[in-house]
Write a structure and sequence with these properties.
- The chain is mainly β.
- It has a single domain, classed as Jelly Rolls (Sandwich).
- 0% of the residues lie in helices and 54% in strands.
- It has no helices and 13 strands.
- The strands form 3 sheets. Strands 4, 5, 7, 8, 11 and 13 form a 6-stranded antiparallel beta sheet that branches. The chain has a 4-stranded antiparallel beta sheet with strand order 6-12-9-10, with no helix packed on it. A 3-stranded antiparallel beta sheet has the order 1-2-3, with no helix packed on it.
Length: 178
């Protein structure tokens, strides 16, 4: 025989709502994955060959708590402590002669230093490529006050000027827990 439990609210031992229902089967969870943001490169960014350069993700898709600076420092500084999923992708190439691409490397930096040897690399030095995307992801813990994360990358070309391409170059983060 089946049992039925009817409730419009589920609470934890502290009396805090965990799940509520509107009576029509629609549930609302009280756990949030905020702050969260996503931004992308609005136009190609010209860079120096083989030089680690901060990627200027200047166009926000969303920014739930105004924690991403898309105009000056291009960094995410969450105001809630916890663990965050950092994700994105960078596409590098030569500016005019795409067949000159040799290498694309992307780095996650936390508080101004490369985080935990995070390095995402594509190397074409033995056979030049045209363009390459380096997807990245990392779970990082933040203190909710001063910790920040930013993305650096560099592109090597055999000739021409390297660029970070606006197409498919994005960066985001969301809180996954405390």
């Amino acid at each position: 025989m089946a049992s039925i439990i009817k409730a419009n609210q589920l609470q934890d031992f502290g009396g805090n709502s965990i799940i509520t229902s509107d009576g029509a089967g629609n549930l609302t969870t009280m756990k949030t994955n905020y702050p969260a943001f996503e931004a992308y490169l609005g136009s190609n960014q010209t860079v120096s060959d083989g030089v680690d350069t901060k990627v200027q993700f200047n166009t926000e898709v969303f920014d739930t708590d105004n924690c991403y600076d898309n105009s000056t420092n291009y960094r995410f500084t969450p105001n809630v402590a916890g663990k965050y999923m950092i994700y994105g992708s960078l596409r590098g190439s030569a500016n005019t002669n795409l067949s000159n691409l040799q290498k694309v490397i992307t780095f996650i930096f936390k508080n101004g230093s490369q985080y935990n040897a995070s390095q995402f690399r594509i190397d074409f030095r033995n056979n030049n490529g045209t363009q390459a995307s380096t997807p990245f992801s990392q779970v990082i813990e933040f203190n909710g006050t001063s910790d920040y994360v930013e993305i650096f990358a560099h592109t090597d070309v055999s000739a021409d000027t390297p660029i970070f391409q606006a197409q498919s170059t994005f960066f985001g983060a969301y809180r996954i827990g405390s």
